[in-house]
Amino acid sequence: MVLRLVFLGPPGAGKGTIAQRLCEAHGLLQISTGDLLREEAGKGTELGDRVKAIMESGKYVEDSTVAELVENKLKELGEKGFILDGFPRTIAQAETLEGILDKLGLKLNGAFDIEASDETIVERLSGRRSCGKCGKIYHLKNIQPKEEGKCDGCGSDLVQRNDDKPEVVKTRLETYKEKTAPLVKYYKEKGLLKVVDANGEVDENMQNVEAILKGVE
Ligand code: AP5
Predict the structure, then answer these.
(1) Which residues line ligand 1 (CB under 6 A)?
(2) Dihedral (Cα; 9, 182, 109, 63), 10-degree rounding
(3) Which residues of the chain have pLDDT under 70?
(4) Which of 41, 77, 93, 126 is positioned for an S-S bond with 52, CB 3.0–4.6 A?
(5) What are the tens digits of pLDDT across the range 123-156?
(6) pLDDT at residue 215, as a whole number
(7) Cβ atoms of 202 and 17 closer than 8 Å
(8) What is the pLDDT of residue 123?
(9) Omega into 145 within 30° of 0, i.e. cis?
(10) What is the DSSP code string of 170-205?
(11) Whose CA is nearest to atom 43 of ligand 1?
């Protein structure tokens, strides 16, 4: 079965960490709208500068920009499975996604709600470091690279994200609760929702996800 999944869940709950490992294990493509937007933000274009400012404020980039980036990626995919990590984040984005998948003749098999407590989230985000080149995710204490400050995969420097400052994290959590939390009900009503308790160690979380995947059709 080809897996086509959506990952919801608050900032810092561990969506990217689980998505990276699951994609490696199952040969899926991770489509992270955060990564796509950071790439856009680094281009120095008018659009990039606008996206950068929105991301650094903790608010969401407008639906049409994000949807276009996702549609382009999905069109390139063919039959390969994917995880949409951080998309959709609004009801409008979820409806747009349905339209894109319909056009491509594809169906989602699950919407995974990756959940962690506010306390866990703050601890995880304050220590997050990620590779400036390939995007691999680490943590100063919890998930350390073999060599301090360097990516295990490509050897590039690890960086701290500008939106991981405490005041921005507060806005990101508020934005999530206002705009994205309603998607839990949306996907529950479609029979696609799977809730993942991601408060534990990475290996434990991966076991939870793999167990849930056994029931996915
Ligand atoms: P995005 O980059 O997607 O950020 P996010 O959703 O806020 O999620 P994060 O990447 O912060 O966290 P995560 O859940 O992936 O956790 P991670 O695995 O890194 O989006 C950034 C911004 O882009 C948004 O604010 C918005 O402006 C814009 N944007 C993106 N998508 C958009 C959309 N669809 N529409 C509009 N705007 C959009 O883990 C966090 C840390 O914890 C890491 O250090 C990790 O090593 C550590 N960790 C993970 N799991 C564990 C564990 N089990 N135990 C201990 N530590 C752990």
Answers:
(1) 9, 11-17, 32-34, 37, 54-55, 58, 60-61, 66, 86-87, 89, 93, 124-125, 127-128, 137-139, 142-143, 163, 172, 201-202, 205
(2) -80
(3) none
(4) 41
(5) 999 999 999 899 999 999 999 999 999 999 999 9
(6) 84
(7) yes
(8) 94
(9) no
(10) HHHHHHIIIIITHHHHHHHHTT-EEEEE--S-HHHH
(11) 128
Report yes or no: 11 and 176 within 8 Å, Cβ to Cβ: yes
10 φ/ψ angles, rounded to the nearest 5 degrees: -65, 160
> What residues contact residue 156 under an 8 Å CB cut-off, 6+ apart?
131, 132, 133, 134, 150
What is the C-alpha separation between 90 and 60, in angstroms, rounded? 9
Bridge-based pairing state of the strands 29-32 and 110-115? unpaired
pLDDT reported for residue 54: 97
- Both tokens of residue 163? 């939106």
What does the pLDDT look like over 22-40, one tens digit per residue?
999 999 999 999 999 999 9
Q: What is the rounded CA–CA span in Å between residue 141 and residue 20?
A: 19
0.85 exceeded by pTM: yes
Token code pair at residue 113: 């709600």
Burial string for 44-83 (b: 16+ CB within 10 Å, else e) reads eeeebeebbebbeebebbebebbbebbbebbeeeeeebbb
In ligand 1, the atom with minimum distance to the C-alpha of 130 is 44
| pLDDT of the residue at 78 | 82
Nearest CA to ligand 1 atom 34: 87
Q: Which helix (H) or strand (E) holds 32?
A: strand 29-32
